[in-house]
Amino acid sequence: MNDISKKSAEGGFSTVGAVAALLVLAALYAFPSFVESPYALHMMILLFLSTIMGESWNIIGGYTGQYSVGHAAYFGAGAYGTLILLQKWEIAPWKGVWAGIAAALVLSLVIGSICFRLRGPYFVLASIAVAEIVRLTVLNTPSVTNGAEGILLSDLPPFKIGETVITDFVSKVPFYYIGLTLALLTILATWGVQNSKLGYFFQAIREDQDAAHSLGINLSLYKNIALALSAMMTSLAGAFYAIYIKFIDPTTVLPLDLSVQIVLIAIIGGIGTIFGPVIGSLVLVPLSEALRSNLIAQGLINSGLVKEDSGLGVFLKEHLAHAHVLIYGILVVVVILFMPDGVIGFVRKMSARKR
Amino acid sequence: MTLSVFLQSLISGILIGGVYALIGIGLTIIFGVMRVINFAHGDIMMVGMYLTFYLFTLFHVDPFVSIVITIPLMFLFGAFLQKVFINRIIGTLPQNQILLTIGLGLIISNSAMLAFTSDYKILTTSYSSGSFKLGEISISQPLTASFIITVVITAILYWFLMKTDTGQAIRATAQDREAAQLMGINVSRMSMLAFGIGAAMAGTAGALISPTYYIFPQVGSAFTLKAFVITVLGGMGSIVGATLGGIIIGIVESVGAVAISSDWKDVLVFAIFLLVLLVKPSGLLGRSRM
Amino acid sequence: MAILEINHVSKFFGGLAANSDVSFAIEEGLIMGLIGPNGAGKTTLFNCITGYYPPSRGEVLFKGRRMNGLQPDRVCKLGMARTWQKVRPLAKMSVLDNVMVGALCRTNSLKTARAVAMEQLQVVRLDHKAGFLAGGLPIGERKKLEVARVLATKPVLLLLDEVMGGLNPAESDEIIRLILDIKRHGITQMVIEHDMKAIMRISDRIVVINSGEKLAEGSPEEIVTNPDVVAAYLGQE
Q: Among A200, A218, A219, which would you mutate to test the C interface (most chain C Cβ atoms within 10 Å of its Cβ)?
């Protein structure tokens, strides 16, 4: 029962796995040719965004076991870095994003040098404190960041190679492809980490820091590498969010809530696995969108469970949309209590029991 | 900054610090007995605020009188949370404990949003903006009242923990869970009591600040963070430390707002927090090691 | 030639001395036994030697190089590896992966590391469990895993902290054979052990520590007849 049969499914790709992966990939790339609904595309883009965030956190939290609850800081660094350069100096986002990544890298090194001297819950608290300092600093330096007003992107320049316009970003399709590609890249990066010395060292640190240290692993070096990788990937998500939504402010890209949501994506799917964050996103994004867009309230009414003109019906329609974060709370409590290894761990355990 | 301005902010810092201390004491008792860092602490406090608000608007119970009702209700609420959720994860990975309490906090705050909407509520009493003068310095009446109540409650709690059998059993559990169990102390009951007391303290703090603060479902998270700063500053698990930490943070905020700017006062608080974590992670009075 | 020299090492915690003025040397290729009653400061000495905390006073010389202040990962890279009294398996990784982590101390290639790891698993006779999760092993196999993992870091000096603790006689015998096997490969060892019979059988020299101080040093025969040692042990029991 202890035997690790996951190796073939995750480490080296089996033939069946490779074919399945290629089919999924082809379907994902063809998706916009068949589905034109902007809402469907929007949902897919949110899925990609969530996957990028979850995979990024997974590197430091899932593989290395350092539960950073301050990842909004890196998300914000990517978002602000890209949009400030675009708004103030008209630097195209595909160039500006590098500034965002660099900002996240620098930030992660500063945070790492402070926080990695602490372990366990103290590390968690420190990561929150640093992220809050970043949020308050952005809020309080309006000359650079526009403060609480935020930055509204009025005009996204078309993407040109030479003089040829590749896309003008009018529809959602180019964002779909950017999101898909970035999500695939982060999955690939995670795969690369898992199948390298880094992955082994990260997991050894997660399992037992003292043992890892005694086996020749430089703890602060490898923790900092993990955090830097994770931070840069998260900033990519932030930059993508900024050019897609075209509006950022401290309450949308830097709050503690966002840091928590990033953690939950990986936790719910299953930490320290390549596809955990993908599963987590598949669970979280549709659920919270259904709540946000009142689908659930409408569904309850349509199904006849709740009468539309009854007090409850009116109440749900009016307020359920505001409480979409509720689902995050319920899910995390359920996951921690009943499936601490996430959906993937739960499924694995169940299938092992059957065999 | 003139002397009177300084004294003014120092005194209001101490007064609000008393309430902070109450929040911190709740967190520190929970941590001391269960080694669980309660990320839902501020949200529990928020429940206390709404309770006080509705007792006042529906039944016209004065906020400072209503704590007689708030304390036992919040105690039961805390004991319930402990029994149903927290108790199941004692001794597991600290990360999972943190995530569970974060999840509970999200559920509490978002349920409050469902029930009460996200509108800001204001509890206005006849004395909400009242103050009395001491020379050039004006002192807020509600803050003074809440400070006095805080002192009384802290004293009672201290007496309870030091002098009663149950209090000693709680302290024994905090010192060494296994040894306490071997000595026949019902550890899981002590945990329930501790979480109940912690929640009651947070709820009381919520009641005491409700005449002077906006009440809204998300008010808790800022106070959760403050509670961490206070308890880490004083030393996780130390009640005297939390009291001291609360008053220090109150003063830093209040004087910092005048001396630097109110925009940056929270940055100052977090910077002090990090400094303490790095220089003396056991806190000013703590013994607990990392 | 002495591979490890411990010169006047003291370690204080607060005002209490866990080790005070301990000195001895280990000759290359031999097995040094380290014995003493519980709380005598044996594990503290291991921790001082391997960089988990710096000695308060005195110095540790490894292959003539001063080790004070070096971090455990550097110590391991220089060729001194230790096991833990309370075993520390990387629970959610496979047995093979555990040993590979050790092997990756010397190589960047996963392929090489996997080969080295399999080799070490064969040495401790745990290769049939390579794919199992380390957290699920029984205590005897955890101890073997611990040994295989440090061997994979290619040490020249191995510090074993009670690898026989909690084992049944058959398992202990297997560990004894393993330790003698390791000696044949030319690896110097320092062994903390409570089982007197075992320690007398494997050690070339023995150091006795009592209340943080060195009480005696000598060959196993000298130790069993040393009146101080007899008094300390008999007085204890």
A: A200
